[in-house]
Amino acid sequence: MIERSMCLVCLDTPTGMELNDTNRALQILHGGGYEKNGANRWYDKPMQFVVGRDGVCGTICEHSPFDGIVLVQCTEYLLKYMKNSPKKLVRADSVSELPAPRRLRWKCSPEIQGYLGSSAEKLQRLVNNLDFTVYKFKNHGKEFIKKQRMSPDAYIQVSLQLAFYKCHGKLVPTYESASIRRFQMGRVENIRSSTTEVLSFVRAMVDEKNTVPIKKNVLTTSGLAANRAGRSSHQLLAEFRSRAQEDSRRRYEWCLTGDLPCQDQRGC
């Protein structure tokens, strides 16, 4: 059953750590190492639902079989179900009868014990080598951005470019996914925010000679504004998805027919 399952429920024991946002996120991700709940993570499964006795609950998604939008929709469905369901849980008729859980007792040879110990040490090194902090920006949220007739998504993307430019003096080819699941076998395509308009914007923002009105004017022409050439950001995104799917389809055809030089057709 474990091998055939698509998702797992990980029942965690309390770690004794302070339950702040950062520690909760780390606990969900790797369980705190092999001395805590690290051995209770199953990264070969697409989804893991973590439920801890100390109240730490969350979900882990393995990106290979599906994309983040699937996890988002699944989580939103569960939250909506819990909110609208009666306070007293009622057993559904469709629930199948499962055998009572029982503890599995393993017989491991010294060789297997050595492998387990080596894996535990490797996991702990990965845990210790991870720098992770949850930071909440409280100055404003997406509703404020929308009132400025801007796309919250584009706002964040350009903010990343501005921050990187201040540190390194150039734009960075960030990855922003656009879902193309409307097409058969479609998953995601890449949107690049390192455009000429964004470069003009970040240069204007870091130029101390520019006044606020000048920076505001550059902001409205950088692609952040909701209306650009009479089209909304949603229309632009829809057009991009259609073009991206067509480009991917043509590339696959070229690789299959041999018209396009390709070192490894499996990677096309």
TrEMBL record:
Keywords: Acyltransferase, Neurotransmitter biosynthesis, Transferase. GO terms for molecular function: choline O-acetyltransferase activity. InterPro entries: Carn_acyl_trans, CAT-like_dom_sf, Cho/carn_acyl_trans, Cho/carn_acyl_trans_2. It comes from the Eukaryota. PROSITE patterns: ACYLTRANSF_C_2. It catalyses: choline + acetyl-CoA = acetylcholine + CoA. This is Choline O-acetyltransferase. It comes from Leptobrachium leishanense.
